[in-house]
């Protein structure tokens, strides 16, 4: 893990539950369900397959032209959106059962990995508070990126954006 | 995961940060550091090696007589104890570098696994609110047990006990 990830996160003066969701090395959907005590819905905004360009190939450590599944979802609990998450997964690296569940929309990634008993670790990359560009109706969002590693390769690269506001006073 | 683990946890009327720490499928030490914004110390209360009796052998899916490392620690942040954790790890299953760090006291398990890039999943077993028997000076503690799975076998079985009181209003 990058040491500055944790130090940076600790320095943010934001609601505790937001800091926790943006910092966990476990499942975010699962934490959100525990925090809100409501079931979390995964609302799929977009799902499509691309062939990796040089930048994506470098990020995922795959070959240019390899197929990548791109999925964008919003995590919603009790009618309130809490997380906007984009994932990129090299098609060839996903175990068959994982691929099937990823293509069927609306299943959280943590649940997919758990259901199929996939062993992973999460390697943090970047975190920061950035311009929200209207997302969640917020001026600023907390953005973080990390890789889910399985069998020593990047199974998924994830970027999550969290609204920085009082909805996290849970 | 046992479905009733999550439902039971959601039903507990306890501080949100306690519910989150007792529910995460990621590192507890790490969440505690993010919540409290203080470094977390691991205070080793006890560490010894036992030969597995029938009950331990069955829990860890090893042979009777196999060596097991037993470690008991308290996690402390800003002078306040938050978690009392007991782990049992079959010696023969620990990668060499992990074993060395486990024997050197005072390194959190999540950090050991992260430092050595170990891929895992956490399988929850039991959760409940029980008599605190004076631990943390509390009448009741929240107790949970889970297994850390690596290469499809139990690498560690962990029981954590959390004080049920207002120290979690973070």
Can you characterise this structure?
Two copies of one chain form a homodimer. Chain A has 170 residues and is an alpha+beta fold. The first copy, chain A, has a single domain (3-165), classed as Chorismate lyase-like (Chorismate lyase), CATH 3.40.1410.10. Chain A is built from six helices and six strands; from the N terminus they run αααβαββααβββ. Chain A has helices at residues 3-11, 16-23, 28-36, 54-60, 96-103, 109-115; strands at residues 40-51, 67-77, 80-90, 121-131, 140-150, 153-163. A six-stranded antiparallel beta sheet of chain A has the order 1-2-3-6-5-4. In chain A, a hairpin with a 2-residue loop joins strand 5 and strand 6 (153-163). The radius of gyration of chain A is 16 Å and the shape is globular. Chain A starts with a helix and ends in a 7-residue tail after the last strand. The mean pLDDT of chain A is 93.
Topology, element by element:
The structure is a homodimer of 170-residue chains.
Chain A: H1 3-11, H2 16-23, H3 28-36, E1 40-51, H4 54-60, E2 67-77, E3 80-90, H5 96-103, H6 109-115, E4 121-131, E5 140-150, E6 153-163
Antiparallel strand pairs in A: 1-2, 2-3, 3-6, 4-5, 5-6
Portion in strands of chain A: 35-45%
CATH top level assignment of chain A: Alpha Beta
Q: Can you write the helix and strand succession of chain A as a string?
A: HHHEHEEHHEEE
Here the CATH topology of chain A equals: Chorismate lyase
Bin the helical content of chain A: 25-40%
